[in-house]
Every structure is written in structure tokens, then in C-alpha cells.
Write a structure and sequence with these properties.
The chain is mainly beta and 562 residues long. Helix content is 2%, strand content 57%.
Length: 562
């Protein structure tokens, strides 16, 4: 990996800069399994010789011009031309029955059996041209106008190139004569902006589709057959997002209170997404440009100096954001697409499933009779949405969405004489995760400790008694995954995390002068100190299920300056 640049000053106050970035990543996936480790039968050794290589480079050429005219007018011009390319190559050979083991994967051609040989190649390119104008009048009125012209090799012919314009205005109200002498106000700036951006993040060759092959016997001969693996789309174009935003920067009491408030509205059209298809078409889905999504939200940043005394200082940085995402329109208009779990007025990623209402209990016998034997005590109790005593696709609910609605973070810094202390909090609220506990209800596998519904005895009349659990259905040796088990997996994954706590002490300079040390600070830090959450998984931020949790780290360190 590397980043390099060249800067040249040209006549007429023009500066030229050339940036080059490279990322070359060879990878080797060699594997060897000896005869004693290949499998339980002790078969001959096998090996895999695999490698891939990714090569990516970016080359940017920029011209800058900045000039101030008559003291009050400042003009800045920027022009950009850039290209980016990534190439990916892969090859893999799997063999078994190696004649001698100490060769490992280095001589796979000597193996008696070649299991598979495969290779792959991909390349994509991105080219861009950009122009920007910055104008400043009296350091009070600021204007920025820019345009990008981008082309992507991943998209279809005739749809590769798109122009993306943008503009922004800012007004430093504090610099106006009617506010300049207002001492309580240290900063006041109003900002508005508009622009269109694009996205082309899909795999290469989606416009053409891809082929897959299979081997068949045709009489006594082996035949190689090809078939279309995915449906091509020769009309794929850029995903475009138009955004309006308005912001206010403020400051009071000589900077003791400062921050910003931003409002934004995003409209994304022609989204690049996989659309589900009827299976009779021969394909499960196709990548296409779909519909219209809207995001609107609020972002607030607040920085305060709460206390500033001779020996003690306390400051706080607070960030808060709220976002609402909703599907406005799909490929078929304002009509829901249940197959893809896309619903008008809802976010893109939602959980659409049956809703659990605990576990059927022994005392529910009268209600169970109405179901005609479909459910028994110990089964998962599903909400009958339309009350017809039948569980059909019409009884599903939107149980939540993957992305949080609210994000919050706060940092506090304390200084008392030579001691310093700070802690950081962050949280996300409103998101749902599907938590597959890995339950094994037939006893074939080990699993997590679960409070299953089960019969625990009999009463004095010989009637069965259960433990009345509403957490998990009864185990059954005849099946591993009971009906509607996924309805128990949806959980609120909101959390508040004490992300970092640090305590430090800086030794007085009078003690350090004789040692030739300018500054000596010792500190202790705890990262990921604690998480407040009702989520049952290992960590609400590290993914669903039993994924690896974020570690708690204890650090002890010394900062030295000479």
C-alpha cells in the first residue's frame, strides 16, 4: 500500500498536484491435510494450492487557482481528473491421494486425483472529471458551485456516464454590523446546500449476467454444459441521491457554548438492489434500478465548557442524530412487495415474520381445541392477526428494522491540577436484530442453556405439570427446528455503551527538570467498559447471533516528552 504526490507551482498563481495511490494484495490459501487428519477413515493426504491477487490504483490530477481581488473578493477554482481501477485474479487446485506427504501443497501435479481446478478474473474502472468554484465576499458571504462527471465500467452501455451538480451558500451573520458588537454571541453562521451524488457499488458484469457450468455423462463420454447463472440486465444505471440540507453554527460566551444543528432531506432514486423474481422464471433475483427511498433527519453537535476555574476544568462534547428512512415508491408504483419485504412507508431492511405470543400452556386446552389440533401445549403461540384460527401469510407483521433511528455519543473531560479524567458514551436506539440462539430441540447437538417448556411432574390427581416457560418450545426428538421458530428470534438491539474511561496523572515539572524530561504522564484506560442492553446476543454492535463480542481492554501507559 502506498500514497504518493507531486506538487508544482505554475505561472498565474496556478498550483498543480498529482496523487497516486496503490494497493496490491497477494494472498495465499494453501492447505494440507495429512493421512491422519484428512478424515476419520485415515485416507491419503490431500492439499489445496490457491492464491489470488488484487491490484488497485487511483491517479488524480488537480489544478488549483486562488486569488483575492480588491480585498473583499476571493475566488478559488479547482479542476480534477481521476481514474481508478481494480483487478482481481484467482486460481485454485484441489487434489487428494498425494504419493508422499512432505511435499505438502508444493507439487499438486503428482496427486493421483484432481478434485477441482478453478480460476477467476474481474476488473472494473471508474473515471471522473470535476470542476468547483469557491467565492467569498467580505468573509461573510460564501458560495460553492461544483459539478462531477463520472463514468463506471460496471454499468450498461449508454448509462455509464452521469453529471452530478451541487451548490452551497453560507452567511456569517456574526460578521454583520448589527451583531458584530454583541459580546454574548461569538459565532453565528447559516448554511444551505443542495447536491446530487451517485452510487455504482455492484459487482462487475451484472449487466451481462454470468455463466455456470456442470459436468454430465452423455453415454460413455463426459460432457461440459453451461447455463445462465444470473439474469443479465442491460439497462443498469447509476443510483442517484439528491440531498437538501440546512445548518446553523453557533457560539456563545466566547466559545464556552458552541455547536451546530443540521437538517437534511435525501431522495434516492434508481436504487441498485436485487429484486426477487418468481422461481418459474429460472432465476431467484435480478439486480436492477428500483424505486424511490427518502431519508430525513436531524443532527445536533454541542460543545460546552461547563466549569473553568483555576485548578479545575470540565468540558463536554455531545452528538445526537435522528434519521427516518422510508420507501416512497417501488418498480410497480406505491405498491408493497411482500416477496422482497419492501413496504411503502417503511425502511428497506425490515423484519417481516410471524409474531410470537409466548408458548401454549396446559391450561390453554379450551383455546387449543379451536385450532383443531394444529397446536399442542409446548408449541410456539403465534398471533392470529385476522382471527380466523389459521396461520397463513396474512398473519405476518413488520417486527422491526435493522438500522437505528437514534444515535447518541457524549464525551466528558475533567482536569484537576495534574490529574485528568475522561469517559466516552455511545448508543444506538430503535434497531432490531434477529438472534438465532442455535437451539437444538432434538438433542443431537450441544447448545446454549435454554429454559425449554417441559413437563416436570404430576399433581395429586395425576395431571401433568409444566414449568410454564414462555422462552422456548418443548424439545422433541422427531424434529430439530419447530414451526415458526424464527418468530422467537427478533429482539430489540438498542444499547448504551461506556466506550472508554481514562484516568491520567502528569508529574510536576519541578520533579522532571533534573531528569531532562519535559513531560511525563501515566494513565490507565478501560475500553468497552460496560454495555446497557436487553439484547440476548454476545454484543449488539458485533452482529447477530453468537458472534464474537467486542473485547474489554485494559491499558496502562506512559507519555514521555523530551
Amino acid at each position: 500500500m502506498g500514497s504518493y504526490y507531486l506538487e508544482v507551482k505554475l505561472p498565474f498563481d496556478i498550483n498543480y498536484r498529482s496523487n497516486v495511490g496503490i494497493d496490491i494484495g497477494p494472498w495465499y490459501g494453501n492447505e494440507f491435510y495429512g493421512a491422519l487428519s484428512a478424515d476419520r477413515s485415515g485416507s491419503a493426504a490431500r492439499a489445496v494450492n490457491a492464491r489470488d491477487n488484487r491490484r488497485m490504483y487511483t491517479w488524480e490530477n488537480l489544478l488549483f487557482y486562488n486569488k483575492t481581488f480588491h480585498k473583499d473578493h476571493t475566488l478559488g477554482l479547482t479542476f480534477l481528473q481521476s481514474i481508478q481501477q481494480e483487478t482481481y485474479e484467482k486460481s485454485e487446485i484441489k487434489v487428494k491421494d498425494l504419493p508422499y506427504e512432505n511435499q505438502q501443497w508444493n507439487n499438486v501435479g503428482s496427486a493421483q486425483t484432481i478434485e477441482s481446478v478453478s480460476s477467476d478474473y474481474q476488473r472494473w474502472n471508474l473515471a471522473s472529471f470535476m470542476g468547483r468554484i469557491n467565492y467569498n465576499f467580505k468573509d461573510r458571504y460564501l458560495l460553492t458551485v461544483s459539478a462531477r462527471y463520472d463514468g463506471s465500467s460496471r454499468l450498461a452501455p449508454g448509462h455509464k456516464w452521469v453529471l452530478f451538480p451541487s451548490a452551497a451558500l453560507a452567511w456569517r451573520i456574526k460578521e454583520e454590523s448589527f451583531l458584530k458588537d454583541v459580546d454574548v454571541l461569538s459565532n453565528l453562521k447559516l448554511r444551505v446546500g443542495w447536491g446530487i451524488t451517485g452510487n455504482t457499488a455492484i459487482d462487475p458484469y451484472k449487466t451481462q449476467g454470468s455463466l455456470e457450468y456442470g459436468r454430465y455423462s452423455y453415454g460413455s463420454n463426459g460432457v461440459l454444459a453451461f447455463y445462465q447463472k444470473e439474469m443479465p440486465n442491460p439497462n443498469l444505471s447509476w443510483e442517484k441521491t439528491e440531498q437538501w440540507n440546512a445548518g446553523l453554527d453557533f457560539g456563545f460566551l466566547n466559545g464556552r457554548i458552541g455547536g451546530s444543528v443540521d437538517l437534511y432531506l435525501q431522495n434516492t432514486k434508481d436504487l441498485l438492489m436485487d429484486r426477487q423474481l418468481p422461481i418459474v422464471s429460472g432465476f431467484g433475483n435480478v439486480t436492477t434500478n428500483i424505486g424511490h427511498i427518502r431519508n430525513k433527519g436531524l443532527e445536533v453537535t454541542l460543545n460546552t465548557v461547563n466549569i473553568e476555574a483555576k485548578d479545575f476544568k470540565w468540558t463536554t462534547d455531545l452528538m445526537f442524530s435522528v434519521n427516518k428512512e422510508e420507501i416512497v415508491e417501488l418498480y410497480n408504483g406505491k405498491v408493497d412487495d411482500e416477496g422482497n419485504k419492501w413496504f411503502i412507508g417503511q425502511p428497506v431492511k425490515v423484519f417481516y415474520d410471524y409474531k410470537a405470543d409466548g408458548i401454549w400452556q396446559l391450561e390453554d386446552a379450551a383455546e387449543l381445541e379451536k385450532w383443531g389440533g394444529v397446536f399442542k401445549p409446548g408449541d410456539i403461540k403465534i398471533v392470529d392477526r385476522n382471527g380466523d384460527y389459521k396461520i397463513t401469510s396474512e398473519d405476518r407483521f413488520i417486527l422491526g428494522h435493522e438500522d437505528p433511528t437514534v444515535n447518541l455519543s457524549m464525551s466528558n473531560y475533567f482536569n484537576y491540577k495534574d490529574f485528568d479524567f475522561n469517559f466516552f458514551l455511545n448508543g444506538s436506539f430503535g434497531q432490531t436484530k434477529s438472534f438465532d440462539r442455535g437451539w437444538s430441540l432434538n438433542g443431537r447437538y450441544n447448545g446454549a442453556k435454554v429454559n425449554y417448556w417441559r413437563i416436570i411432574g404430576e399433581d395429586e390427581n395425576g395431571n401433568p405439570i409444566s414449568n410454564r416457560s414462555n422462552e422456548a418450545p418443548r424439545p422433541n426428538i422427531d424434529y430439530e427446528n419447530p414451526n415458526y421458530i424464527s418468530s422467537l428470534y427478533k429482539e430489540d438491539a438498542s444499547f448504551l455503551r461506556i466506550g472508554q474511561v481514562t484516568l491520567g496523572y502528569t508529574l510536576p515539572k519541578t520533579l522532571l527538570q533534573s531528569m531532562g524530561v519535559q513531560k511525563l504522564r501515566v494513565y490507565a484506560t478501560v475500553q468497552n467498559a460496560y454495555v446497557f442492553t436487553s439484547y440476548s446476543g454476545t454484543d449488539p454492535e458485533s452482529g447477530s447471533d453468537f458472534n464474537e463480542p467486542m473485547p474489554r481492554t485494559y491499558l496502562f501507559g506512559v507519555n514521555l516528552s523530551f
